[in-house]
Design goal:
With about 200 residues, the chain is an alpha+beta fold. The protein has 5 helices and 4 strands; from the N terminus they run αααααββββ.
Amino acid sequence: MSICTFIPSPVSQFLTLSLSSSSKSSSAPSKTPVPRISASAEVPDFLSADWLESRRKRPFGPRLSFSAEEAVQHQLDALKYNDQPRQDYGIEVMYRFAGFDPFERSTYFGRFFDLGQFERFRRIFHHSTYRVLLGHQERKILSSLYPKENCYKQRLWVRGARPEEEEIFQFTMVQRVGGSWDGYWLTESLLHDGDSDCFSGGLAY
């Protein structure tokens, strides 16, 4: 003898209620009612139709697949085309790669600055020393090395868009260990390789 257990599903419960209510409201005898099911809305897919396109348009920043060299190159490319697709977009990319704590003063540019607000970060890039990076015409790697396994340094020469405008900078990239950024290469500092204090002429900070 077999025992069949029936567990009512939401659809079967809906059909049962529909049948019982329709039989009570009908005063004259009628034939066996045929249940009608109508969907009030289409069942959405797990991913929206524009999911892939939105992923392509997401803000550019660190990727787990980037090596240290690639992370530097992507940042420099962003600065080369700084105002594409909008003004100072390249500086926005730099800000996403920055590895400092926004709630503490940082030596990202050599001196201790409060860079928690993007506007302060942006202003420093428009300073006479760093502005050579914005829309630069040419660059060349002078040296690169891994002083430690999770640390990468690169010195590069940059020629700006203005006549006789050229500077040398040094990137220091650090690969995070642990936490939500585990394995990502982030920028610890971007230093001007020249005067001991490149901000000695003043800065609208």
